[in-house]
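User: My collaborator sent over this chain with a note saying "see what the structure looks like." That's all I know about it. Can you take a look?
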Amino acid sequence: MVIAELEMARVQTVVDLGCGDGKLLSRLMKEKQLTQLVGLDVSVRVLEIAAERLRLDRLPQRQRERIQLLHGGLTYRDARIEGFDAATAIEVIEHLDENRLVAFERVLFQCARPGLVIVTTPNVEYNIHYSFLPPGQFRHPDHRFEWTRAAFAAWGQRVATTFGYGVRFVPVGTVDATVGPPTQMAVFTRDDLQGGEA
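Assistant: Without extra context I'll predict from the sequence alone. Here is the result:
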């Protein structure tokens, strides 16, 4: 779904924030219209795993020039992630302390200011379907929070209004009529690009 959104917006350059071990980047590498890909993560170890997954040391020169992995945090301004058509933060925000979200918002929506931003996060309401999860426990031990659909929508609307973006919400996975999808996605488009290309 993320790739479909990027294709629809006809973006050419993408930065994947909190890229982890490079799963999304490896799929994006197959998209020929993407001319520049950057993955940013705070963990040096997962960046090493990403480099192995992407076979960076064995890529032909032209392919190698398309992609770069960077070590860095998500809550401090970083000029290296500015000027991209699109940014993705896939299953990332729930790993940030909630009181650090404001810094993340500023870094991404005010400083980097890509035309398109895609954010996904777990839908906590769906957790009742995971029998292995005791009530009140999050899906991953490093999650600092997991939001309901209403909480995610409220956050997305506030961010969009604050920084001059439009936002729409897309379910990811099979939708349960009562509790919604397992994952929720917000697609932000900068106001000056509404109706046009990102």
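A starting point for your reply to your collaborator: The chain has a mean pLDDT of 94.
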